[in-house]
């Protein structure tokens, strides 16, 4: 840690960060299975951790059905009966407000035989904590809470008070669309600036793409296998649609000019992730249903991507004699992730980068990511400038043997604590 660029108050804060406590808290919440749609138990633990960190805690219970009627509802992929947000507050309301927030829902573990350690038994190996959700994004959640706690402790040790308000927010339902984030926004969790400690390798994400999920129903005509020419195989027509989607993917990505998106190589991927069809081995398939993901371009909201996707499918159908008369049905399902961006010169980006550089001794890079995130909801629906900055590698998220290095969690907490104090800490005497 670099110390010569930090004020006495900032040093009090970063020195108060307890690596052992961070590990204990991370173990506690990773051990709670919180697959999307089942987040109540982990939210109870988050409320307890916030209270133990001297935050005023509010738990907001949102009716999922009522939220689904919101015009800005971002979609969902799982049925749920509960949707609770936990908000911790510190400092003086009415002034400048900054937010650190994260999601506590995780994706399913998949094939447990591929894990080197049990996914719900947090295990430290060579300084990294393994378990489902460790990097996406419970490590970041714990780092954010530790940073808020450190900012409070530093100010208290100096006998002073925050000159503004800090909100620490724990949300569900990020993985399947962002309903938890929208619920938090509707509950008033907006402010002057926000940081989401999603895994970014301690770089600062100022732009991200988006994505929509879709379902295509592709018709064919059944016939006995011995008379297959009398039928039309929906599988053959899936090949037509797949080729059209591949050509569209190449065109969309080839047209991108934003340097950071271009650097990603494939910023707007299209994928068919699920295929179902056929009822009998010796019958020509008369119907195939596929589900997949379609990227949202930087600068676009999700409806623009839906329009593009529908045009691609319509064009492929128009060019095929069978599909022209029996067109593919297109449905938009699941999460709807718009893109988001703030300028590199925005005070949030530059201020956070300076705090990171002064604390960790090296300035971060400003980067873009090809995935969707809650960042876009805070910017678009919450009117809150937001960036992503967190510990760990996005590449190990959603994968077997997901893990986060504990020292990176600590480093993230230190940098965020300094940023918080520079945003809403007491003025220098």
Number of structural domains? 2
In angstroms, what is the radius of gyration?
A: 24 Å
Lateral arrangement of strands in the main beta sheet = 1-2-6-3-7-15
Structural class: alpha/beta
In the CATH scheme, what's the topology name of the largest domain? Answer: Aminopeptidase
Q: What proportion strand?
A: 15-25%
- CATH 4th-level superfamily of the largest domain: Zn peptidases
- Quote the average pLDDT: 96
Distance between the termini: 25 Å
* SSE topology string: HHHEHEEEEHEHEEEHHEEHHEEHEHEEH
Q: State the helical fraction.
A: 25-40%
Examine the secondary-structure arrangement and name the CATH architecture of the largest domain: 3-Layer(aba) Sandwich
Which descriptor suits the 3D outline?
elongated
Short description:
With 429 residues, this protein is of the alpha/beta class. 37% of the residues lie in helices and 21% in strands.
Describe the structure.
This protein is of the alpha/beta class and 429 residues long. The chain folds into two domains: 8-208 and 339-424, Zn peptidases (Aminopeptidase); 210-337, Alpha-Beta Plaits (2-Layer Sandwich), CATH 3.30.70.360. Helices cover 37% and strands 21% of the residues. It contains 13 helices and 16 strands. Strands 1-2-6-3-7-15 form a six-stranded mixed beta sheet, sandwiched between helices. Strands 10-11-9-12 form a four-stranded antiparallel beta sheet. The chain has a three-stranded antiparallel beta sheet with strand order 4-5-16. α1 packs across α5 and α5 crosses α13. The protein is elongated, with a radius of gyration of 24 Å. The mean pLDDT is 96.
């Amino acid at each position: 840690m670099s110390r010569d660029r930090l004020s006495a108050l900032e040093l009090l804060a970063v020195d108060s960060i307890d690596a052992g406590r961070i590990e204990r808290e991370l173990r506690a919440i990773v051990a709670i299975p919180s697959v999307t749609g089942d987040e109540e138990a982990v939210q109870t633990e988050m409320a307890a951790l916030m209270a133990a960190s001297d935050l005023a805690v509010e738990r907001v219970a949102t009716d999922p059905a009522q939220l689904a009627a919101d015009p800005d509802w971002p979609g969902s992929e799982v049925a749920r009966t509960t949707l609770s947000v936990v908000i911790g507050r510190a400092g003086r309301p009415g002034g400048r407000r900054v937010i650190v927030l994260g999601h506590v829902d995780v994706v399913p573990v998949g094939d447990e035989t591929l894990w080197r350690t049990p996914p719900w038994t947090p295990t430290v190996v060579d300084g990294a904590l393994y378990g489902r959700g460790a990097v996406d994004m419970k490590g970041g959640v714990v780092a954010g809470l530790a940073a808020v706690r450190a900012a409070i402790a530093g100010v208290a040790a100096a006998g002073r008070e925050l000159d503004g308000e800090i909100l620490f927010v724990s949300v569900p339902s990020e993985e399947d669309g962002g309903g938890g984030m929208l619920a938090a926004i509707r509950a008033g969790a907006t402010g002057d600036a926000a940081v989401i400690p999603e895994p970014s390798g301690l770089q600062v994400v100022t732009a991200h793409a988006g994505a929509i999920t879709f379902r295509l129903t592709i018709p064919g005509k059944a016939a006995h296998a011995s008379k297959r020419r009398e039928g039309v195989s929906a599988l053959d027509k899936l090949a037509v649609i797949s080729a059209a989607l591949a050509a569209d993917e190449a065109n969309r990505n080839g047209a991108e000019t934003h340097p950071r998106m271009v650097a990603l190589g494939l910023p707007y991927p299209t994928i068919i992730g699920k295929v179902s069809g056929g009822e009998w081995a010796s019958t020509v398939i008369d119907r195939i249903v596929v589900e997949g993901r379609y990227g949202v371009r930087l600068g676009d909201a999700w409806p623009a991507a839906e329009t593009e996707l529908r045009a691609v499918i319509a064009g492929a159908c128009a060019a095929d004699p069978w599909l022209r008369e029996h067109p593919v049905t297109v449905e938009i399902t699941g999460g709807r992730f718009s893109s988001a961006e703030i300028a590199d010169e925005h005070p949030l980006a530059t201020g956070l980068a300076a705090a990171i550089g002064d604390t960790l001794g090296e300035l971060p890079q400003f980067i873009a990511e090809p995935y969707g995130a809650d960042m876009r909801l805070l910017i678009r629906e919450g009117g809150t400038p937001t960036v992503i900055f967190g510990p760990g590698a996005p590449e190990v998220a959603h994968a077997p043997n997901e893990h986060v290095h504990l020292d990176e969690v600590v480093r993230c907490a230190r940098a965020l604590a300094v940023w918080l104090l520079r945003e809403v800490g007491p003025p220098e005497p």
